[in-house]
Amino acid sequence: MQEHSNLSTEIYELLKDGRQLSISGITRELKSRNLNEHRLIVTGYLRAMHDMDYLNEFDLSPSKIYTLKDAGLFSRARKTEDKSGNESNTDSENEIYKQIGEKVSKMTAAVRLETAVYLFMSLFDRPCFESELNAAGIESAQISHYLNSESQNRLVFKSKTDCKKYYEEIPNIPKHSQAYEINMEKIDRNDLMRAVNILTSLLREKIDVSELVSKTANKSLLNF
Predict the structure, then answer these.
(1) Phi, psi values for residue 161, rounded to 5°
(2) Is 197 exposed, middle or buried (0-12, 13-18, 19+ CB in 10 A)?
(3) Which of 26, 55, 56, 222 could form a disulfide with 50 if both were Cys (CB 3.0 to 4.6 A apart)?
(4) Considering only the top CATH level, what class is 4-68?
(5) Residue 144: what are its φ and ψ, rounded to 5°?
């Protein structure tokens, strides 16, 4: 059995990166790490960490949900300071590109590119830049191949002039990076469902909804 002196650190590891878990979810994940703590012990630690201002606690009946607070002993935010003295969270910014890249990695090249562009457009409410596609694992050579060979090209180029404000407002986008949008007139139901499935999958990885899911749930509606 896990020594209790280290249990708070294990709980931190489970909740870092913005995860939200119930008591049952935390107990279950501890068990998957071979830490077979009784639910009552886990509950006691969670309440103590909440009282010490390390955790947020909120009710999602019938469960209590816990998240890490932004500051305190267990908030190991990976922040760096830029030359102007402003803080940035580069690791966190890059994580969404990595996650989207993993979700689309098994798709065919054309669908992978189109889906990534559509997802970034939807998430950021702006055009998607080539540097962001590169961060998601889609190389510039693959983009060029698509543009040169795909007969049903659905990408729309955005001019540097149209994107001037984004280059100025978002430091991690190089000024030479080409911007793209999806031609929304060519989007069909399959494209929309593909994007919904990926976004829902990402949400379920961040928020523990196991207490709300029926054990006999119909899996045929959406395949995650």
Answers:
(1) -65, -45
(2) middle
(3) 55
(4) mainly alpha
(5) -60, -40
Spacing of C-alpha 49 from chain mean position: 25
The tokens 């499935």 sit on which residue? 197
Q: Report the interhelical angle of 189-206 vs 90-104 (nearest 10°).
A: 130
Is residue 45 a contact partner of residue 8, using CB atoms and an 8 Å limit?
Answer: yes
Cα-to-chain-centroid distance, residue 145: 28
Q: Which residues pair with 179 in a beta bridge?
A: 129, 158
What six digits make up the tokens of 98?
A: 């990595």
Token reading at 7: 């249990």
Can you give the residue ranges of every domain in the chain? 4-68, 89-204
Classify residue 20 by its DSSP letter: B
pLDDT tens sequence for the chain (224 residues): 444 447 888 888 888 777 888 898 899 889 888 888 888 888 888 888 888 778 888 877 677 888 887 534 443 433 333 444 444 444 556 788 989 999 999 999 999 999 999 999 999 999 999 999 999 999 998 999 898 887 778 999 999 899 999 999 888 888 889 999 999 889 889 999 999 999 988 888 877 777 776 666 555 545 54
- Contact of 68 with 74, CB cutoff 8 Å: yes
R_g of the chain computed on alpha carbons:
21
**Can you tell me which residue has the tokens 């878990």?**
21
- Cα separation, 116 vs 100, in Å, equals 7
Residue with tokens 């077979």: 36
Residues 6+ apart with CB under 8 A from 199: 119, 122, 123
